[in-house]
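Human: I would love a firmer grasp of how sequence relates to backbone shape in proteins. Could you go through the record with me and say what the backbone is doing? Here is the record:
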Amino acid sequence: MQAHWRLTVAEALKRPLFRHAEVIAGRGGLNRPIRWVHILESAENHKFLNGGELILSTGLGFGSDSQKRLAYLKGVMERGAVGVCIELGEYIRQIPEDMCELANHCQFPLIAFLEPVRFVDITLDLHERIVNRHTEVLRTLEAFTRDLQQLSLQPNGLARILERLQKTVQLQTIFYPCEGEPIFFPAMPQTVQQELVQLLQSGAFANQLAPGSSGVLPISAKKSIVYQPIAAMGQVLAYLGLILYERTADEFLLLALDYTAAAIAQILLRKMVVEEQARDRQDRLLDQLLAGGSLSEEQLRSLLGFAPKTALPPYLAVILESGAERPAVSADGSLLFTDLLGVFRMVLRRYGFTPLLRSRGQRLYMLLLLERPANRREQLEKAMEEISQLVRKGLGRDEPLHWGISRLGDRFDTAARHFQEAEQALASQSWAGSPFYDDLGVHRLLAAQQDDYAQRAFVDDYLGPLLRHDQQHNSQLLTTLRVFLDHHANKQEAAEKLFIRRQTLYHRLEKIKELLGESYLEPEHRLCLELALRIYERLNR
């Protein structure tokens, strides 16, 4: 496909109807592509232009009036016209010097018809050429798309597709995966490759374009890279780019780029599925770990690919649970977590985790080996948010999702205990306010205690008088006690938090002492009250 598939001004001048035309000024803009041909006589009507038009005029609207003709020329230039053809005759005898100066300054083609011409013949001729060019482009893209579909099913399909794209657009092609080595077609010197990779890392990755959109990265005054992300399941897997020289990306290039990105996305997605199947053996170990299997630490190390005496990376046990009333399924009936495992892996690896994943019904179990233990919490929170968005997008609705995350583990044979911690964190999240087991504090003991009768009896023994008094008198003694203890028995801070006067607080505290006894602020009694308050809060949530 030729570099400029559109009809340019220079090509239009070679048509027979332009044999008596002469370029008066603005020769530097003759390579501008023509989108349409328009007859325009008045400067007031330039607002109807959309850009890319070649303008035909007799000079009727401006003639010899210097102010009008410059306003006319500036107006069509501002609206994106690609050139003006003026028929010399009754209304304008020659192209004035001031118009030539402006056209030369802006590299805007100014063309004079030295003899009378029929504008209707020119319009028909050029429009026919433009439509033919568009038809040629559509046929080329159709054949290109068919080839991409066939190549995507062949061995080494990625390289074949990149070769086909480069042959079609005749531009340097770059494939830059988020994981793996970039591919340049045709090959480029190593130093140039490194410079382009750094440019993509600082530009493409930072801009985070939405899938299906394109961006431009300048290399120099004359060179640039037009690129597009290759995405699957809402995740960017790679970037596809073309290097432009003294050229901007037109519709043909953008469409070719888009079609190629879609074909490569299918290849990458299939590759992820194959890799997912290959990882299934290791993931099956989670079944034994979850069940507290009898495998020794040495056996687990061997199955996970770790040498006997190598230092193990620390790990976290994580549980993701869908709160949907019915199991989340995809269109083909498989559990949605299963369909998304490959994308989950990519997200987790990007944030520094080596994951083992297992989908069971409404839950996804994860054993995350930490490649970079530093900032693990911050990185995990980012990965959790991204995974949550992926699940909601996959379901097409705002799905309730819950997380439970264990303490850091250092031996695989204790993984079952860490999954129990994740289970407790998951069960406690609604009232503890955090998915991390590390944040539960005293709630660890409360979560481990499953005897509701014993817990309710404990609450009644220590808080029963306050609860009954609040119920009978519509008072707020329980809330007052909680705020008072939370602020370390500081009366002024408690009164401010409760938005009451200190005298009111004193009356309430006297009533609390009357109901609970003189010793309610002594250490052991106070500890029991604080535990009872938290148990009561958990039970009632």
